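User: Here's a chain of 237 residues. Predict its fold as tokens.
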Amino acid sequence: MNSFELLIIEPDVSQQGVLKSYLEDLGIFKIEILTHSDDLTKLLDIFTPDLLLANYRANVDTTIKELILQHSKLKNLPCIVYTSEFQKSVLNDIVDLVLVDFLPFPMKKIELEKALLLGKKQCEVNRNSSIKFNDYIFVRMGKDIKKLKISDILYVVVDGKYIELHTSERRFFVRSTLTALLERLPSSFIKTHKAYAVNLEYLDTINMEDSTVKIGNETLPLSRNLKKEILDLFYVA
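Assistant: Prediction complete.
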């Protein structure tokens, strides 16, 4: 839990006190509080936040959007923005940020807690989606954990709460959804059916009449919608 790092940008020390009192019981973030936005560059050299909690007025002359646009390390950072100017014009100004929540100030403690939990969830999603499988993965095989080359996987198929990874020699089981697994596999793996995805390196033929694909001796289903997508991508008339 404490591995999530929260940057707070709040120029008013008394408002910092309100936020600190709200955050004391949560304990889910390592926190840095910035009072003077001029110090942001120096701070970002030693601190890499996962989430930003900021007053819309980062200082007298600068909004948080303007400040984010000045610092590339903040541009893709999920953020919670709060303001005493809780109105549509402010929301319209910040809506194209990676906005987790927009809160009035002062806010209720439950409102901030809700926003931070949503932000933490977004951090987890970002971290998981950024971890891509490259050359190999580790999978359970009996009591052992086996190193499996991605290039050896012919196709994958949903089996209840598990995914079967098929190689030419055997199959392995991992607990995942097909969508989540494909997000982490290389682009050579494409979905051919709601329960199947194939490694294009091994796809031999597409049978248009039967709506199937052939991988070695295996014949796998091909859904109508996905058939069109695959042909649009790869078919040369």
